[in-house]
Design a protein that fits this description.
CATH superfamily of the largest domain: P-loop containing nucleotide triphosphate hydrolases
Distance between the termini: 58 Å
Helix content: 55-70%
Shape: elongated
Strand content: 5-15%
Structural class: alpha/beta
CATH architecture of the largest domain: 3-Layer(aba) Sandwich
Oligomer: single chain
Largest sheet: 6 strands, parallel
Number of strands: 8
Length: 327
């Protein structure tokens, strides 16, 4: 049994290597689809050799027997059983006992639950597949590579905007990359195209608000505040978190003394934040003393307390904060 992630499993499949049994432990829909497509493209002779079924749909024993029979007429088949967690414990046990007898096929089991509930067996061809944990550099390379596969290059400015203004899940990013690639007629994806097409996340709009506050653009910050507060009841809390995180960066950087020619990637690693956020905070250091940054952190903690206690308008509290702490 091996543990791997979707990207590594896709890479292996494209190299002609597969496991007889994959267990999908939750994860990205985009990456699941990519891995299934890669397995089918590389190891099946026709699309008809892929069978997708809900694990709780119909008689499981009969389904497995039918699959074994079908293997007599195909070079290889893929059986994808979704929502295995819906099976009763005894049914799961029976399924895993049958794994060794399934013949010349690839079995994919989707399990949305606690892996400890799986009756795992000692099988050399069993792969537990999880979402990859991508660092900053890996995520950038993945985005660049995804555009490259579509015959596109993304400009550095467009890449930065995409990273800071949309949700960072691979599901969301893959949709945004697809949308931008279809729209952009040339080979270079520009900042203007990305700004025009992507759906900004709350965090992305919040990043623009923080930038406006730091830069003293109060009118823009107040307009963005209105947009964010329309994004749901959780919006005030998430915005407070973003503001607190960025004012904390200001406070941390102001205590480090003068830094000449800073390496923002190294600073980000040291401070535990995003290089772009560190760069923005660094550029605004002259607008804030360490004491003012400390005051902003205390004010945000008080706003958070008042909102959680109820009775005060989050819009009014955050509006006052912007007017007080925007230079």
């Amino acid at each position: 049994m091996v543990e791997t992630d979707y990207l590594e499993a896709i890479k292996k499949a494209e190299e002609g290597i597969f496991q007889p049994v994959y267990i999908f432990l939750g994860g990205s829909l985009y990456l699941k689809d990519r891995l299934i497509k890669s397995l089918c493209d590389n190891f099946l002779s026709s699309e008809g050799d892929l069978e997708i079924r809900e694990a709780g749909e119909g008689n499981l024993e009969e389904l497995l027997e039918n699959q074994e029979s079908a293997c007599l007429f195909s070079t290889r088949r893929v059986l994808y059983l979704k929502n295995v967690q819906e099976l009763k414990a005894q049914e799961r046990k029976s399924l895993f006992q049958r794994i060794n007898t399934l013949g010349n096929q690839i079995l994919i089991l989707e399990f949305e639950g606690n892996p400890e509930e799986l009756p795992l067996i000692e099988l050399s061809g069993l792969a537990l597949v999880k979402d990859p944990v991508l660092g900053e550099k890996q995520l950038r390379n993945w985005i660049i590579g995804s555009f490259s596969k579509k015959g596109k290059r993304i400009s550095p400015e467009a890449l930065e905007f995409l990273l800071t203004h949309t949700d960072r899940s691979l599901d969301t990013l893959s949709l945004e990359i697809e949308k931008v690639s279809l729209y952009e007629e040339g080979s270079l994806v520009s900042l203007e195209t990305v700004q025009k097409l992507i759906t900004p996340s709350l965090e992305g709009t919040g990043f623009d608000l923080v930038d406006a506050v730091f830069s003293g653009k109060r009118g823009k910050a107040l307009n963005l505040l209105n947009q964010i507060l329309f994004m749901g009841k959780e919006a005030p809390g998430r915005l407070i978190f973003l503001l607190f995180r960025n004012f904390k960066l200001l406070w941390q950087l102001s205590g480090m003394g003068q830094v000449k020619k800073p390496d923002f990637f190294k600073l980000a690693q040291k401070l535990g934040d995003h290089p772009i956020a560190v760069k923005k905070a660094f550029e605004c250091l002259n607008n804030y003393s360490r004491e003012k940054a400390q005051g902003a952190l205390e004010a945000l903690a008080e706003i958070d307390r008042k909102i959680k206690q109820g009775g005060e308008d989050p819009h009014l509290l955050l509006e006052k904060f912007i007017l007080e702490f925007s230079p």
